[in-house]
Structures are given as structure tokens and as C-alpha cells.
Amino acid sequence: MQGEFALPETITPALPAVEVFSDLDMPRGLLAALTAQGVTTPFPIQGATLPNSLAGRDVLGRGRTGSGKTLAFGLALLARTAGQRAVPRQPLALVLVPTRELAQQVTDALTPYARAVKLRLATVVGGMPIGRQANALRGGTEVVVATPGRLKDLIDRGDCRLDQVATTVLDEADQMADMGFMPQVTALLDQVRPEGQRMLFSATLDRNVDRLVRRYLTDPVVHSVDPSQGAVTTMEHHVLHVHGADKHRLTTEIAARDGRVIMFLDTKHAVDRLTQDLLASGVRAAALHGGKSQPQRTRTLAQFKTGHVTVLVATNVAARGIHVDHLDLVVNVDPPTDHKDYLHRGGRTARAGESGSVVTLVTNNQRRDMTRLMAAAGIVPRTTQVRSGEEALRRITGARTPSGIPVTITAPTPERRKRGTASRGRRSSATAARRVSGRQSAFDAAA
């Protein structure tokens, strides 16, 4: 892949990979939680890195989005922190991520395992009340999942110190570099325990990450699953050559398909405009971008995951950190300008071994740029000339004619339950929801 540096060679031989979690030296609580979650067989990146990360080795891992990186670093971090108790304001383990969406993804993935070994987990991100996050840190928390800007704010306020952090993870380090977070990231890494363990995981590793690897990782175990190669077997890539005048109608027909789809556009304005047009055409669509408030974004994602919304119209804010089961189509209405963005957009489908398709709509004046982008991504797509209403479009995307009956998306309202036991359950659920909201709700600082 263009621009990537030569991965460092491991000086100390890596421990052999494992094929079952029970072969790993992990607390019984974690093994039991894996079984309870129905997770039985490690993904390749987990089987390869966990024996080494559990032994305290630094890890440099590259794997396609959806390849299991979160548990690869999360299980090791929790296993090595288990049995310890943090004092107020001084966490013991840290996961740095670039966006709120990814923070939520990591938090959701690790919460059942953290509970299994009685570790407290707090999420520290922008766009949420800083007071609640400060209270969680002051109350004591072993593991913090954070975006760099908000964590720096809390440190500057005196609500957090990193000098007791023994295990540090950088997830999606390449995006942190692309978003300009590198000065904040290095400043934070300089504050953790110098002898501690560091793990760096990313879907791509380019020269922007070289500085981090060489400065902060010591004799790392290197595991690389090429993102484009990893996508070939489970993901179909289609480039659809379209006429500019027909593009909007064609996009609407794809959106009206039977099943969920994420559609990516370049700007917030374009996202809002397409969303309104789809709603007017009878398509249950919702917009996701950095201009939406935190509660709006949380609700939209929840509605998309449950199927209340079938089309998520998004900017690149959704290209990382969102996992939706059984999502089989991603459409680039506006082609991305960078091959890494293409891989991350496409990584919302064909996750964890499932199949899926990535469709990119390309007008005549975009063809040359798209050819270069695909070459940089290492992908040979299927190219088809299509028009709205054609069988080829239906075959590739499941496109249908929309109903034309306007729809309005509203937040679902739960039915009123009977008093007594149901009322007590409601109060209990509300208390739990406030606790989750205060300590584990997340989303991005830099959409």
C-alpha cells in the first residue's frame, strides 16, 4: 500500500498463535464471559497477538476494520489489569481512540468482560458533560477509553493523572494522525508509566504512524493482515458508472431496497439534503454527521441498528467505529478522495467474516480519480454502466422504486407499563441508564 513504512522486525521471537481461547493464560472470569457472549474461536489477529500481549509484550497490529482488533487488545488489557484497584483520579489502563463513535464501540465491546473481572470502565469523550466524566475519574476507575482532546482537558483540570497507567492502547492511530491529534497523543503517551506496555492497532499503518511506533513501542510483536487482501474474500467491490442527471434518482432507488444500507457523502449539507429527499420519497432515512447533537447521533445509530431507520446517510464520521450486524451494503454516493477512507467506509460491511458489497457511484469526470484510488487500495472492482430502473442496478444493489409516500422518523415511545413490579423495573432501568450515561456513554470529539 502506498506510503507505508517497513514494519519493524521482531527481535524476540513471538509466541505461537492459539486456536482456542482456553489455551490462553487469562482469568477464569474472562474465559467464562467469552463463553457467555458466544465467542468461542479467536479471529486471526486475536489468536496471533494475545499470547504475546498477555505476556506483557508490546504489540503492533494491523487488521482490516471488523477483523477483531477490539478484543485483541481489550482482553489483554483487562487480563493484565484484573485484581488491581485504582485510586481516585489515577486509572491503570488507557485506550486512546480518535472518535466518539469508536469510543462507544470499544466501550460496548469491553463492558461485559470488564464486569466479569470487576474492573470499572469509564468513557471520556467530547460532546458529553465533562462533569460526569470528572466524577467517574474522581470516584476511581481502572480502565479509561478516551479521545485525546477531552482526556487532556480532564488532566488540565486536575481530574486525571496518567502516571499509574501500565497498559496503553492506541486504536486507529493512522486516523489520529490524519485528524491532527498527534501532538496531543504524544503528550499523553509521555505521561504514562515509561516501563508500561503499549499496543498499537490500526486498519492501516502509514508513515504518519512511524514516529509513534519507533518512539513508544519496544521490541513489538508485529501482526499484519493487509486490509485490502482481508476484504477480498468476503466483500464485493462495484464501481457503477452513472450519468450525472440520473444519479439522484438512481441513489433513491438503491435506498428503497429491502434491507439496511449506509450511504456516504462528502458534506453535512449534502447529507441533510439527501436525507430529506429520501424521506419525501418514502424511504426511512436518517442523517449522521458532526453537526448533529450528541443525543441525536446516539438515537440515530440506535434506530439504524434496530431497523427503525433503514438508510443511514453519513459523512466520514461514520466510517470508523460503527458496527452493525448483518449490514450487507455500503454505497459511496460521493466517491472518497483517499484510499484509506474507501477502506474504512467499506469496512462497515463484511465484518467478522460476513459477506457484503461496497458500491461507488462514479460520474464520467470522476472515472480517472477512481481508477487511481482503487489501485492504491489494492482492489480490482467490478465496473458496470447503469441507469435507474435497470435490471443490472437491481441485481447489484437490490434497488427498487420507492413508494413515494412521505415518511417521518420519530423516536419510538415505549408502551406504558402497569404499576407495581413494572414500575419498579422502570425506576431500576432509569437508574441503570443514568449510570451508563454518566460513565460509559460515548461519541466523538472531532466529527
- Structural class by secondary-structure content: alpha/beta
Largest sheet descriptor: 7 strands, parallel
Assembly state of the chains shown: single chain
CATH class bucket of the largest domain = Alpha Beta
What is the CATH architecture descriptor of the largest domain? 3-Layer(aba) Sandwich
Mean model confidence by pLDDT: 83
Contiguous runs where pLDDT drops below 50 for at least 5 residues: 226-233, 414-447
CATH H-level homologous superfamily name of the largest domain: P-loop containing nucleotide triphosphate hydrolases
What's the arrangement of strands in the largest beta sheet?
A: 3-4-2-5-6-1-7
User: How much helical structure, as a percent, in the residues?
Assistant: 40-55%
Give the number of DSSP strands: 14
